[in-house]
């Protein structure tokens, strides 16, 4: 990674050579067209970074190379690089180019970055990491919601539960499930917890996109969510904590079965 003052790569960081295959256009890769070409390009490069094609410290190909690989304009490449810089994945300097930043600088609460993570070969580790965070945050957040929720917030939680029950597809069910947990974070009264909802939403969407849930499991999961809703409605914090822990344990079991 280049030094901030001199603009030259520091001696402490090894510059990683780019694998030629990583900058080769796949034969069946569709040509990017339309006004959002740079968005599609940022998605393709971002996914390659997150899945490890370009490790931290790698100097990426220049604009001309990306333009050739994806058959897009250089302006589209520039806009894509700017997007990835805004997400913390890249830095750039004139005469040096763009390089991949250390993982700790990536914005892991960005929806796109989360999506790339969940689509990477290491998605099981990602899901387990999200679950660990949920175990640390959600029981207490739900207890706070039981103490602080307003009638309007309670209605949002109850409506999400109702939508889970009435869903006619797994996608609808998962979307309602995520909305249920996000509504609880909002009802906690702590604004710092709300952004974590994007983690829960991403984890649920990508987990259940790869897992076929059986009818018995769906009914059991709904019952667990009903217990959470009831504890918040009755304003019983301890009951709320325990109900969430049981629901999280059920998700842990699903991940464990999926990974076998």
UniProtKB/TrEMBL annotation:
PROSITE patterns: HTH_GNTR. It comes from the Bacteria. Keywords: DNA-binding, Transcription, Transcription regulation. The keyword Transmembrane does not apply. This is FadR family transcriptional regulator. Coiled coil: none annotated. It holds the Pfam family GntR. The keyword DNA-binding applies. It comes from Rhizobium ruizarguesonis. Residues 35-103 form the HTH gntR-type domain.
């Amino acid at each position: 990674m280049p030094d901030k003052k001199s603009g030259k790569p520091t001696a402490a960081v090894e510059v990683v050579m780019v694998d030629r295959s990583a900058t080769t256009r796949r034969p069946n890769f569709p040509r990017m067209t339309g006004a959002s070409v740079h968005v599609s390009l940022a998605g393709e490069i971002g996914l390659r970074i997150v899945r490890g094609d370009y490790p931290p410290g790698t100097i990426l190909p220049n604009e001309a190379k990306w333009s050739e690989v994806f058959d897009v304009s250089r302006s589209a490449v520039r806009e894509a690089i700017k997007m990835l810089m805004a997400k913390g994945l890249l830095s750039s300097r004139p005469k040096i180019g763009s390089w991949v930043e250390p993982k700790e600088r990536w914005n892991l609460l960005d929806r796109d970055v989360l999506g790339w993570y969940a689509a990477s070969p290491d998605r099981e580790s990602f899901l387990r990491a999200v679950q660990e965070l949920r175990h640390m945050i959600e029981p207490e957040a739900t207890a706070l919601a039981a103490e602080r929720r307003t009638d309007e917030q309670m209605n949002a939680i109850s409506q999400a539960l109702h939508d889970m029950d009435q869903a006619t597809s797994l996608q609808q069910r998962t979307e309602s499930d995520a909305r249920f947990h996000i509504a609880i974070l909002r009802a906690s009264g702590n604004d710092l917890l709300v952004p974590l909802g994007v983690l829960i939403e991403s984890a649920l969407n990508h987990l259940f996109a790869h897992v076929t849930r059986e009818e018995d499991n769906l009914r059991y999961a709904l019952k667990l969510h009903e217990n959470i809703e009831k504890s918040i409605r009755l304003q019983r914090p301890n009951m709320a904590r325990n109900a969430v822990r049981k629901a999280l344990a059920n998700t842990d079991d699903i991940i464990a079965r999926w990974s076998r």
